[in-house]
Amino acid sequence: MRKKEYVLFLAMVLTLGLLAACNGADEDADTDAGEDAAVDEENGDEGEEDGEAAGEPQEGGEIIVGMQGDPNDLHSAYAADTQSTDVTRMIHAAVTTHNADMEMAPELAVDMPEVSDDGLTYTIELHDDVYFHDGEQLTADDVVFTYEVFMDEDYTGPRTTPFERVESVEATGEHEVTIELSEPDASLESSALTYEIMPEHILGDVPADEQEEHEFSTSEAVVGAGPFSLEEWDYGTSLTLEAHEDYHLDGPYLDAVTLRIAEDANALLAMLQAGEVDHANIRPQDVETANAIDDVNVVAEDGYNYNYIGWNHDRPPFDDPDVRRAMTMAIDREAIIDGVLQGHAEIAHFPHHPMSWAYSDDVDEIPFDPDGAIELLEEAGFEQNDEGQMEYEGEPFSFELLTNQESHARVDWVVVVQEMLAEIGIDVQTDTMEFGAYLDRIQTPNYDFDAIAGAWSLAIYPDPEPLFHSDQYEQGQNNIKYESDAFDELAQDNRSIVDEDERAEAIQEAYGQVAEDQAYTFMYYPDVHQAHREEIQNFQMSPLSEFFKIEEWWLEE
């Protein structure tokens, strides 16, 4: 299919998507690769404002924000999707966090940790005026308890890597924590210490392997020390958060925030038009409509994430890097960006974002080349039969491409990918699932997929190991079972390198190996758009979170 024909096809896809809006889905409900963040970059949209504060903060009032899908878990050790991490950050607080300049900053800690000269001892002084929502004071014991959940041999979550080098965590004072490492870890402050602290007085007697499903993690029984407390969770409809009056940092200025659950992006836009929500993430194709709504500002920024197709290397022929490369060559990513995303994205060739210090453009940019894809597949043992179908091991080759229904863009582009691969004789069956069911199918221990279309939010201080190291298959995030001795060797020592320039070089080499092996087909880096009422002041857009620093938002009377 030539490009002009794709444009027509893509137009049809978008039309079908709009017609199917009643049951459709949209916006990136990204899986989350750890903690994340980004830097702003102008995307050229006109009429956009940054929502800066007009004066001194005013207390009081409520806002309603739209969100696609409920969170799956509110325990920091298990929250692994965008909705869960966004809500978890409102309810809980962590030792360290990221500020608006994409730098590490203390949150529960008074200052950044004191690190010994050998890099093996971290001493953390906590604020002495931090209280959980139920009135109990947060102390060093809560920090020790939380980190030991991640280190427990019965821990069932995906975040073991950040604590691999932690030998011990000890309360060395009521508000002082000392962490001893087996070897230096340059990522500790930006990974392990950013996980929110759980209350020992509530979960201390709950075994680690039962905390994920405990009512604390899945209902309004949750108690945190963050700026908002969860008062009501009407699953599938809304979550009601109220201001935590004893929050130890600035804010919250709003009395309450209601998270209104929308079925899909079309429903979210309709809510915005009807004045039923005051803030929402919107699709690129909805920017013009949102800008036309009275008293609504639309803000745009580079998204600090990428979309990808993950090939299950445990299922031949996707264990062959040449086959994966051929798949990438057969997909016209530029046409998808132009047609599905209306140009609001950039082709991805590398496993991290161009804004990052860990990014490198010194990689092989794989072009759209369907004829070259066919040649590679034939060299890998495929044969094209008389009907034009690609056969593998004597049978017409077919596979399933799975994604989550909440992402309207991905639901659209997997259909386009299906058509593009059909052009070289490959049959693709697409399937979309509710996000929780999707995660259950693709994560440990099931790994029941041929290929998945997903997205990863990215870390400011990345560590390539959790996603791609061979040790991270059984109970980690390497669900595609990527195995590369070269990558393992390049990546495994990166956390020991304290000098950022040297560490960047090590990470770039490791990520370069992933790109060369086409562990994923890297699709694109998307732009993100958010719309909010003009009355909301001090709105801070950040790729860190859709609700970045929401405790510092306020309403102008």
Automatic annotation (TrEMBL):
<dbReference type="GO" id="GO:0042597">
    <property type="term" value="C:periplasmic space"/>
</dbReference>
<feature type="region of interest" description="Disordered">
    <location>
        <begin position="27"/>
        <end position="57"/>
    </location>
</feature>
<feature type="signal peptide">
    <location>
        <begin position="1"/>
        <end position="20"/>
    </location>
</feature>
<keyword id="KW-0732">Signal</keyword>
<feature type="domain" description="Solute-binding protein family 5">
    <location>
        <begin position="104"/>
        <end position="478"/>
    </location>
</feature>
<dbReference type="GO" id="GO:0043190">
    <property type="term" value="C:ATP-binding cassette (ABC) transporter complex"/>
</dbReference>
<comment type="similarity">
    <text>Belongs to the bacterial solute-binding protein 5 family.</text>
</comment>
<dbReference type="InterPro" id="IPR030678">
    <property type="entry name" value="Peptide/Ni-bd"/>
</dbReference>
<dbReference type="GO" id="GO:0015833">
    <property type="term" value="P:peptide transport"/>
</dbReference>
<keyword id="KW-0813">Transport</keyword>
<protein>
    <submittedName>
        <fullName>Peptide-binding protein</fullName>
    </submittedName>
</protein>
<dbReference type="Pfam" id="PF00496">
    <property type="entry name" value="SBP_bac_5"/>
</dbReference>
<dbReference type="GO" id="GO:1904680">
    <property type="term" value="F:peptide transmembrane transporter activity"/>
</dbReference>
<dbReference type="InterPro" id="IPR039424">
    <property type="entry name" value="SBP_5"/>
</dbReference>
<feature type="compositionally biased region" description="Acidic residues">
    <location>
        <begin position="27"/>
        <end position="53"/>
    </location>
</feature>
<dbReference type="InterPro" id="IPR000914">
    <property type="entry name" value="SBP_5_dom"/>
</dbReference>
